[in-house]
Amino acid sequence: MNGGTIKIKGGTDMAHEKSRNLKLNLTDILVTIVIALVFGLVFRLMGPVYDLVQPLGIHLDALLYGIWFIAAPFAALLIRKPGVAFLAETAAALAEMLFAGSGGVINLYYGLLQGAFSEAIFAAWRYKKFSIGVASLSAFAALIASIILDAGYAYLPLLAGWNLILYIVFRLIGSILLSGLFPYALVKGLEKTGVTQSLRPVTKEDYDVLK
């Protein structure tokens, strides 16, 4: 403030500030790695549960499949910077592999493609919109990535007719619930409790961007 007037930054300075704010810093990377480790362990623990449900029939296991997509949208919704969705999903897949997950190195292939597809959704909105709809689209994109890989690595090509349709529909439902709605609600809850203050200050705009 100078002589009773408020000095406003020029458009170039503000654009530069926004650009700088989108760059990953050390804290962002460390938090993303922690997220990946946590969900990598979750993935590892969910493996036996998935195998237990699989013999029950009617593809109930497909409802649980969506949990393997959660790292990307959760990290993106929390940190809201380019690259974190891809990094979190890939690192979580690597962590699952290191935790002796049943898929072995193939888990990493899934993590890479699912992370890339999920990242693409947030990039399409230029990392400016983090609504429940965008989170759900991110989960849907990861679902598409998993189906592409399943066509080559899993038993998906062996399914036919209503059996294949039921499997994909159940996986879609599980994906939206577990990796769309759930991470969105979790991040919004964390911000309201102030837990994320150590990562970044929460403003009214932060809440608005989640709407």
TrEMBL record:
InterPro entries: ABC_thiamin-permease_prd
Annotated protein name in UniProt: Thiamine ABC transporter permease
Organism: Sporolactobacillus inulinus CASD
Transmembrane segments: 24-46, 58-79, 130-152, 164-186
Keywords: Membrane, Transmembrane, Transmembrane helix
Name of a matching Pfam family: ABC_cobalt
